[in-house]
Each structure stands twice: as structure tokens, then as C-alpha cells.
Amino acid sequence: MHFIFRILFSVAIFTTVLSCSQEEPAQHWFRGNTHAHTVICGHADSTPEFVTAWYHERGYNFLILSEHNHFIDPDSVKMPQPLRDDFILIPGEEVSGHKVIHSTAMNIDTLVNWDFNHEHVSEIIQFQVDGAIAANGHTILNHPNYEWAITAADILPVKKLYMFELYNGHPSVRNHGDETHPSTEKMWDELLTKGMKIYGVSSDDAHDFQKIADDESNPGRGWVMVKSQNLTPDAITEAMNHGQFYSSNGVFLKKCGVNNGVYSIEIDEAATMKELLSPDIFGKKVDEKENGFFIEFIGPEGKVLSHSKTMQAKFKIDDSSSYVRAKVTFTRTHKAGGSEEFYAWGQPVFTDERKKDH
Ligand SMILES: [Zn+2]
Ligand SMILES: [Zn+2]
To answer: Which residues, chain by chain, have CB under 5 Å from ion ligand 1?
Structure first.
């Protein structure tokens, strides 16, 4: 074959391969908050309708009205009008049990019982996980550092728990730990290093919609971006329970996922900058440091395997790490001095037996 024809022939084959993969169903990113309260609990300031309209107006795609031990049936909520066709409520409840053990029962079809006490925190968590499954849903274990209620050792023995709140926007939940307690992110690496398959969720836990201030529990501080073909309660819940999402408290990504053993991250700078203009946004205050984006790939024990200051990065996964997760940090000068940080957290990808489906 003439050289030029050989090239054309190769191009033709390559194009065919590409178009085959393009025939796969399109996946979309859907933005959602899994944790919000209403006047029904007695200590939040807005109605289910007001709370729903808040998220609808701001372009979110899904919301869980996760009331304490109360099931808000989405069919009972008067939806904002005109209603966007890419916005849904997912039924849920914040199961709020003994020893300050709280979890979001996601996509349940009935109230989940909270009233079970035990000397071991693990047993209370397990009771809530089993209750959510019995109601055809899944559990997100909430704010482990709130009142220092839950340690990594309490979470580790729990079966069929695949999600926990890595980040919660309530000002008193201590996501970042203190001198004697690890941050939720450190707890996450401990669980992942010790063999648990658990994904990190970011949520608002919003109670206060009428006054915006750092010490109020405001909406718009923590959310997830879920990769799914469809926007339905089942599709979103299943995607999250299988780690098909990233979590954020300010940073948006264009790309976050694994293809052919390569973990790829691409930052969406324009969307991030736009979001960070919002008065609702709530960064982590740190000592003054260099402004800009920073991408890290992290493995067992929280060890940084690779890092870069570019807007996109790739990491080739191999068996030398039992898991790899990604983290993007954006740093800017804080208005009161020092710096503040915002994050996007990509979910762990496993190379050991956890790569099997569950
Ligand atoms: Zn709670
Ligand atoms: Zn809550």
C-alpha cells in the first residue's frame, strides 16, 4: 500500500474506534446538596418550599430535605414555578440517634427509625445503615467530628456503608479537627488505608437561609457533582453509592475520573471564579500562602503521590497503591488577612479487591 494511503487507512480505523466510544450514553454532571433543614425541625428558619426554591434558583439539580427523624415526602412540597426540568427532590431524612450519631438516609421510601442505643457507636451506625437499606435507600454518615461523636475506629467495622460527610458546611462540626482530633480528611485516609471502601461527601447542613454570616449555618457551602446518565433519585443515589461524583466547597472541575487506569483532573477555572464571588461561600482560613490552584493525587496513609500547579493533571494508577484519590486546592487572600482555601475532592479508585462492584 502506498504510504499516504496507509496513513489514511489508519486514520479511518482510529476515527471508527473514537466514534464507537462516542456512542456510549452521555454522562452529565449534576450538582446537589444532600443535607438541608427546614422549620419542621424547630431550629431552622425556612419552610420546605423556601429551601427548595433557594437551591432551584441557584442552578442545583437535586436536593434532599433531610429533616431530623422526620420524612418529608417530596410529593408534599409545593415546587417552585416555573419548575426547571433538570431539578428534583430526592426523598430523605437525617436519622438523628443516640450518642449524636446522625446519618442521611438517602432515597428512602419511608421513615427510618432512629431510636436504638448501644454502648458501641459502631452498632448505632450499623442500625442506621440497615434501616436505610430496609427503606430502599443508602446512608451517608454525617459530620463525624460534631461533638467528637465518631472516630475512624467506630466507622471501620460498619458493613454496607459507602459514604460519609468529609465536609459539612455547619460552622460547629469541626471538619478540620483540632490539636488532639484528626480532621475528617485524615479519618478518610485512615479508613481507606485500612481497607474500607468509603466515599467522601460534601454538604451544607443548612439551617439558616435568612441571614448570611460566617457563624450561621448557611446554604451554598458544600455540594457534590454527580456523574450520571439520568437525573432521577435512583440514578443519582446509585451513582453516589458507587463513587461516581466529586465533592466541593468551592472548586469546580471539568474532568474528574479514571479512564484506562489513568486518573484525570481538569479544573474549571471560569466556574470556580464565578462561584467564589458568591457571598455564601465559606473557605478554610489558613496562614498566608501563595495564591492559585494546586492538584494532588493521594494514596495510602494520606501520602501525596504526585502534585502540580497546572490546570490539568493525570496520574497513572498501578498496584503499588491500594487506592488513589485526587484533591484540588484553590488558595486566595482572605479579606481579614492571611489566606483561605477551597477544595474539590475526587473519590478514591481502588486497585485491590475493593475494585469489585458492591
Ligand atoms: Zn446532624
Ligand atoms: Zn443536619
So the answer is: 102, 142
Question: 270 and 161, same structural domain?
Answer: no
Task: Calculate how far, in angstroms, residue 21's C-alpha sits from the geometric centre of ligand 2.
Answer: 42
SS (H, E, C) 269-336: HHHHHHHCCCCCCCCEEECCCCCEEEEEEECHHHCEEEEECCCEEEEECCCCCCEEEEEEEEEEECCC
Surrounding ion ligand 2 within 5 Å at CB are 94, 205
For residue range 123-164, what is the model confidence (pLDDT) as tens digits?
Answer: 999 999 999 999 999 999 999 999 999 999 999 999 999 999
**Could you tell me which residue, 19 or 104, shows the higher pLDDT?**
104
**Span between the terminal Cα atoms of the chain, in Å:** 50
CA neighbor of 178 nearest in space, from 145, 136, 200, 129: 145
Query: Residues 301, 189: contact at Cβ < 8 Å?
Result: yes
Ligand nearest to the CA of 173: 1
| Strand 28-36 versus strand 223-228 pairing type | antiparallel
Q: Which amino acid is at 27?
A: Q
pLDDT in tens, 282-320: 899 999 999 999 999 999 999 999 999 999 999 999 999
Q: What is the CATH number of the domain that holds 125?
A: 3.20.20.140
Residues 6 or more apart whose CB falls under 8 angstroms from that of 340 comprise 283, 284, 285, 286, 331, 332, 333, 334
Peptide bond into 82 cis (omega under 30): yes
| Å from CA of 322 to ligand 1 middle | 31
Q: Is the pLDDT of residue 12 over 50?
A: no
Which cell numbers hold the place of 257? 475520573
What are the helix and strand counts (H, E) for the chain? 7, 18
Looking at the fold, whether 245 and 260 belong to one and the same domain comes out as no
Q: What one-character DSSP code corresponds to residue 268?
A: -
Same domain, 244 and 275: no
β-pairing, 262-267 with 312-316? antiparallel
